[in-house]
Each structure stands twice: as C-alpha cells, then as structure tokens.
Write a structure and sequence with these properties.
Length: about 600
C-alpha cells in the first residue's frame, strides 16, 4: 500500500481508467453536496490555494495487454463522478471540450478511439455515459431521472463560467491518495473505510464481505437481481425509512429485521447475551460478522436465506404506503400502514417471519387482523409499550407462533400478567373520552376507521391517500372568542373534550384559520369564500353524523366518542371473553369523562 498527496491532474492523467466496481453503491450525492462542491470550486479559483478534498482509495487491477492503467475506485466514487459531471457542464459552457477530453477520456492509439476515463457501476452507467456524450450546453431530460442526471442539470443551471478556472482546479485540488496492489485484501479495505466513518450501508458492507473479485459471477447471479438489478430496484433499497428517532436506508432496515429473525433460529443456539447485542441496530455489520464467525455459519447458506427474505420484503413491505390506497380489510397493506405511519417498526421481523412460514393467505390475513386489533387498541389506550420489541422481534419468532389460535393464546395467556395485554372494550371506551392524541396518531386512527367503515359501500368520492388528509379539532383549541363555556363545565373539562377522539376529524384540506376558529355554524357551513366542514366532509363516514348537528359541545363530543368506541369494537375486536365486572357504557361515561349527560341544558 502506498499513500501520498496527489493533485487531481495526477490522478486523471489521460492514461488511467478508474473503474467503479459493479457492487458499489449508486451515485447518491444531492443538492446540498452539489451546492457545497460548486462553492468550493469557486473558492479555489478565487484564491489559487491548494484545497484538500479528503482521501481516496484506488486499487490496481490487472491490465493484461491493455495500454491503460486500470484501477478500481474503492473510496472516492461520489467525488470523481461529481468532478466529471461538473467539468462536462463547465467545458460545454466554455467550449473547451479539448481540456475535458484530455482528463476524462483516454485515447486508444491502436484503434484510434477514445474511452471514458471513469467506468461506472451497472446502476449508473447508462446515464453517466449519456451525459459524457453530450455535445451541447443544454439540460438533459429523462423519464426516470437519476441523481447522475440531476447533478448534471444542477451544474448546467448554476455554474458561472466567469468564477471557475479549470486549470487552477486541476492543479490545486488535493487528495490523500491511497494506492493498493491487486493482491491486497479487499475486506480489510472495506473495514478500514467503515472505521473511518464513511457511511456505507449494511448491504454494501455485507456484499463485500460475502463476495470478492473471484466470486463476481456469484454476486452477479445472486445479489444483483435482488438488490441492484436496475435503478428502480436500487432506489427502493436506498430509500430513507424512519425507524423511531432514526432515519436509515431501507436496505439497513431490512437487514436489521432479518438478523432479529436469524438469531432466534433454534438450530444456531445463539446465547442470550449475544441476542441482546445482535438486536441492537448500532454496529449491524459487525454483528453479522460476529454471528457468522462465532456460530460457524456457512456464508453461502446465509446468502440464500437472506435473498429469500429480501424478496419477501421487497414484494410486501412498502415504506410509501401513506401515498397510496389501502383496503378496509386486514392484510399486508394495513400492516404496512401500522409500520410506516403509526411507526410500529418493531413488528417487521415477525411480519416477515409470517410471510415466510404461513403459506395460507387467509390464515395469514387473520393473524394480521389480530395484530392490527392488538396494536390499534393499545394505541388508542396509550398502553405502555415497554418490552413491545421483545414480543415481535423475539418471543413470537422463538416460539414459532404461526397460527391465529397460537397467537391469540399467547397474547391472552402471557406469564407477565397485565404487561402488553390486549385492552378490553371498556378500556377503549374510557380512552376515547379521556386520552389526548398527537395529530399524526389521531389522524391515522381515524383514517383506518374510515377505510374499514367504507369497505364494500358505494361512495360518491374516492378516499385519498393518507398523506392528503389533515387533522381538525371540531371544537377549536382557540375557542374563547366564539365558543362560550357552559357554566356546568370547567376549562379543564373543555380542554379534555377538545383533545379527545370524539372531537377530532380527518379532512382532505386544511380549513382557513378564520373558519377553523369560527362559531360552529360558520365552521360547519363556511362563510364567504372560505369553505366549511360540510364541503370537505360530505362523503366521509366518520363525519356523516357530525355535519348533521346544529350544535357542537361537550355532549355531542361525548356521543361521538361513544360512537368511535363502538366502531373500534366492531373493526378491531378484543377476541377476549366478557367479564362480569366490566363497567357499563353509562358508568364509563360518567367516571371517565366526568360529565353528567342529563345535568346540563343545551
């Protein structure tokens, strides 16, 4: 290994071809990085000073009879690609393609042709070569734009040729260049990159752990069709997914779920201490390596198992569920809604486990329906979710719970008593009156109710995707100007009423502020050019009775809370036998909402 300071002109010398390996990630830089890059280029031009742009790692490849020096880009793909797109746009603007060709093309003297000095990975090759082949200073259009195309178009629009001097850049952009010989260990290289903090996904690290240059055919036969066949597939795995407080690539999200399944395999006999460590999302790649080495797992067997689960994940798990329609009956689409809208990401391992091990779709959907009831009742009741992850990432998988009856029996008869219990109808009723809800959670509950109530019924208007809707407090939070307080109720009681489920509505458009805080008559019917609830809610089932009300107050809110609780009991049944000591509906209303329904005049 050799390391030293190198200028950009030293690396792109007209005789060297830099190859992005097939298995490398797609080009991922976006506008923030392009803007910073352009600013840096202008700064270098204006100062004429050397400018350090980090380290790059190149690995020598066999050249055979080729006259060119062929090297693989181990680290630096994003920067070299950006330089090529940037210089292409600049040289088209300045009519200086001779300088561009001298650095980014290499001449084959035997055939008297030119080749690209940068050979891209399979995912970006087509777009990159199309950009380099441009002969006019104009934007490049494509039906499915990639980051390659977006980067070029950004530079086309934003480069000011008067602020950029290409000769200054070639001589003053400085790297620490690390050159590796062909025989040096590829895995050590990638481990080094990872330890230096380069943000490679777990998928990228694993494929370079499983495959080497000598097993490229296996990589192309197995890994590529599952993860990198085309741009659309690569975009699916690269998409950002929110998991709790973390944002991760979808592929990392999958590998976290898969590892949680794998460590429960009874044939491996993973120790309890190791399970605790392996289930942590931090250090995921190292957890895979440690599991394989500690328990002597066959890499190829594991690759096949990963690919089986990856195909199930790709075909069933949809991070964009909020942008599409969902049915009103239990199934994987509604499970996706729980995962990505209500953010119950911890259920993914068990969901994948069921997809793999329950071939009967009807049985599987029945289990999905039970999981939906379990989660929604607990969400409505704001139940404590301590150890919730253990249930879906460990216990149900370890016990091989793959039938509805087994799942129902396990939830109903847990040894820890009340922990993670399925709430009963009377608890749901109390919660519908008492609990305060964050906007997104409440909106999600109402949306799922709406889809189920509408199922099988003809409607004049189609239900929009979830992301189109907004939450409205029917009695507004700013109520003092237009909603006088009844003398039988306190401000605290009114506040409880405002934030409970009975007072919340999903609307396809946000009301104008003047209407949102107006009197009930104006809020319902609208005033002047500002439309009211009736206009937006005329075909929404969860508001059908609301818009018939001539008044909206604590009593009508309580009545709607009862109605919502009844619908919850129908759509998300408890599956539990009734008990003699369950309170009646009237008692729950009196004790939990603290209202006397007959004690006030309206």
């Amino acid at each position: 290994m050799d390391a030293g300071t190198k200028q950009l002109a030293d690396i792109l010398n007209g005789n060297r071809i830099l190859e992005v390996p097939y298995y490398q990630r797609s080009y991922v830089w976006k506008e923030d990085q392009w803007a910073r890059f352009l600013s840096d280029m202008e700064y270098i031009t204006s100062t004429g000073k050397d400018y350090f742009l980090g380290s790059i790692i190149l690995k020598q490849q066999p050249t055979g009879l080729s006259q060119f020096d062929l090297q693989s880009i181990i680290d630096g793909q994003q920067r070299f690609t950006t330089f090529a797109l940037f210089f292409k746009s600049l040289c088209l603007k300045t009519d200086d393609m001779e300088t561009f060709d001298s650095k980014f093309m290499v001449r084959d003297r035997k055939t008297k042709t030119r080749q690209l000095a940068i050979r891209h990975s399979i995912n970006d090759r087509k777009d990159f070569e199309a950009i380099i082949a441009l002969d006019k200073d104009e934007p490049y259009s494509s039906s499915l734009p990639s980051n390659i195309i977006k980067a070029y178009n950004y530079f086309h629009e934003n480069i000011n040729p008067e602020k950029i001097d290409i000769d200054v850049l070639l001589n003053h952009v400085i790297f620490i260049g690390i050159s590796l010989q062909y025989a040096e260990d590829e895995q050590v290289i990638f481990d080094t990159i990872n330890s230096l903090g380069v943000r490679l996904t777990t998928g990228e690290l694993l494929k370079n752990y499983f495959f080497t240059e000598s097993t490229r055919e296996e990589y192309e036969e197995l890994w590529m069709p599952t993860f990198e066949k085309d741009r659309e597939l690569a975009n699916y795995w690269d998409a950002e997914v929110v998991s709790g407080r973390l944002k991760r690539a979808n592929i990392d999200f999958f590998f976290t779920a898969y590892l949680n399944i794998k460590i429960q395999d009874p044939s491996i006999k993973v120790s309890a201490d190791h399970k605790v460590r392996y289930r942590r999302s931090e250090g995921l790649f190292n957890n895979y390596k440690d599991l394989i080495s500690t328990y002597n797992l066959d890499k190829k067997d594991m690759i096949y198992d990963i690919l089986d689960y990856a195909m199930l994940y790709h075909d069933n798990i949809n991070p964009n569920i909020a942008k599409g329609e969902i049915p009103g009956t239990p199934g994987i689409e509604r499970i996706n809604f729980l995962i990505f809208v209500l953010e119950y990401t911890t259920i993914v391992p068990y969901v994948l486990f069921l997809l793999k091990n329950v071939p009967d779709e009807e049985e599987r959907n029945t289990m999905f329906g039970y999981i939906e009831s379990y989660i929604l009742r607990r969400q409505i009741c704001k139940s404590d979710n301590k150890n919730f992850s253990d249930l879906f990432s460990e216990n149900l998988i370890l016990r091989n719970i793959i039938t509805f009856e087994a799942l129902k029996d396990y939830i109903e008869n847990r040894e820890d008593g009340q922990a993670l219990v399925l709430p009963r109808d009377n608890e749901v009723l109390k919660a519908c009156h008492n609990q305060w809800y964050a906007n997104k959670k409440a909106l999600a509950i109402l949306y799922l109710l709406e889809t189920s109530i509408r199922e099988g019924k003809p409607h004049a208007t189609k239900l929009y995707p979830f992301e189109r809707y907004t939450l409205e407090h029917l009695m507004p939070r700013s109520w003092k100007d237009n909603w006088p307080l009844h003398p039988d109720y306190t401000e605290d009681q009114r506040k409880d009423a405002i934030y409970c489920l009975g007072n919340l509505a999903m609307l396809p458009s946000k009301l104008n502020t003047s209407i949102s805080n107006a009197s009930w008559t104006d809020k319902k019917n609208g005033k002047g050019k500002n439309l009211g609830i009736v206009h937006y809610a005329s075909d929404i089932e969860t508001l059908a009775n609301v818009i018939t009300k001539t008044e909206w107050n604590e009593k009508t809110i309580a009545e709607r809370s009862n109605w919502i609780a009844e619908k919850v009991a129908e759509i998300w049944p408890s599956y539990l036998p009734a008990t003699e000591d369950e309170e009646s509906v009237e008692e729950n209303i009196l004790t939990s909402f603290k209202l006397s329904l007959n004690g006030a005049a309206y």
